[in-house]
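Run log, item B.
One chain of 628 residues. Sequence copied directly from the ordering sheet:
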Amino acid sequence: MEVFYRTDVAVPADLVVNGKLYKDVGLKYRGNSSFRSVSPDLKRSMNLYIDHKHSDQKLLGYKTLNLLNANSDPTFMREVIYSHVARNYIPAFKGNFIKVVINGESWGLYSHIQQYNKDFLEDNFGTRAGTRWKIGAGGGGSGNLRYPGDKKEDYNGFQQRTEGKEEAWKELEQFTKLLDETPVEELAEKLNGRFDLDSAMWSLALECVFQDEGYFTRGSDYNLYLDPKGRFHLLQHDGNEVMNIPGGPGMPSGLSGPKLEPFYNADNPDRPLMYKLFQVPHFKARYRHHLKTITQEWITWDKIGPLVEGYAALIREEIKKDVRKHSSYDAFEKGLIQTSSDGRRTKLGLRPFTEGRREFLLNHPEVNLPSPEIVSVTELDEAKSTDSTRIAAETTGDTLPETVVLWFADGKNEPYNQVAMQPDGQAGVGVFNGNIPAQLAGKKIRYYVEVRSGGTEVTSDFYPALAEAKPLTFLVKAPKAVQSLLTINEVVSENRAAAKDPQGDYDDYIEIANTSDSEIDLSGKFLTDNKKIPRKWEFPKGTKIKAGGRLVVWADEDGKAEKGLHANFKLAKGGETIQLIDSDKAGNLILDEVEFAKLDPDSAFRRLPDGKGDFSEGAASPGTNNTK
């Protein structure tokens, strides 16, 4: 492993986890200072590739283990704690502990932090696509998101972790140029849809609160992700030195204790995420709010203490037995509750850091500023696809609101849109209303409210407090049409011999009837067997029913079939509800619906008289009139 360090060669091995064998995995040393500064007889960080030779082989759903030696952390738990807290606010790594034995010899305890790979993307963004970069130290400053030039070579601080994405470098160039050159007064508008700003503010606030060595301080040691829709996301990289006194390039000199300034580097042009964004008053106010929220919610021994005590109880005996750790067992115990010094560097204990950091930040004059407050947010209307949804927000506090903004998005990880909320003269002082425009049926709308003060130093409050990290939600419903010329005419949910589809299969089906005297175009209309997903299966463009005609849709999930109409769902033999939904342009009205119970094999639940009558069980007659 030492011979192949810094190469693309992984050493082959067999892995046993709790008695289960995983053949032909790959093992590599990883890290920079965590490797070079560590004696070979002590533990070094490792990557373990479960899918090294067998692409479908995974461990509990994951293909890479990221085993860290807790370099410079005698408690072994700093990064695990950081990941635990960060995941409340941003897409961040999972973390736990693993006991490692190599060739029968114990290598002791490792902290195990999720790998920044496609599994991570799927966990947090619901996709495996997009482009990942790791921005490490030693990049000559070109990783700080300033625009360095129009050549790939100019971005030597960025290590692309996604193969076959050469075109993404152009996207990165355009983004850094946008951030670097856009006038401050145009920044909010031009960044919208291009950069996940709220998550970035949480990320910067986390780095500051935990005194992390990342973008906030160094302008490096962070991750960047470009999602398939062209939106950039700022993500964390490592946290093994958090809750301590940061050192090294870009760090504040002479820092003692948990006293990293909340707006450190805000006036540094080489940190454009702070330098440029904090010149926009409401961006700076958002960051301040998020920093204060993290501190109030987590930086207290009442919250961190139980985490520390739980992890210590879990790993204490393994730490005692570990002969390859970098520090003593005594250092482990002291590191939990007290500050120490090795003569060269002071190391903050987890409890002193937590208590001192809270006191420093919450009493800081740039953090402890008065702000208007939001006490409640209410949906005044039922969310329907045909109408806007009215939202009311009630504010309070000695600081009066100057601006109240309703933010909403129509999906997870989608950009938020904003609507200015207006005072409700009838409801009284401090109540504001705003309307979310009509949205498509089945959409899960995410929303929150921001209230801003006036004055030279704008402050903000959010409801819910976590804003886009944990917004309010509602599901848009499809209202029923007053009348419809299209009806669900017949359903067969257990087709054994009633009728064959064009491929010769006996599949369940739904028959649609046109009760009018004119041809009807079904293009863009929908069928569904799930009320929460009204737009589940869309009729293909050009699908028509002649006047008085019948159309059969096969419920077989056979979307690749060339002949016939094949829905992307099957019918439940025990019964369910089927809905026919109008097009997006027509407001997604429910044109017809039928609820059926368990049917006999080859039996139909059909209308009598045909097309317009009540439902009853009887003989199947796909594509023709129901007569008996």
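Observations after the first pass:
- The radius of gyration is 30 Å.
- The CA atoms of residues 130 and 247 lie 33 Å apart.
Flagged for discussion on Thursday.
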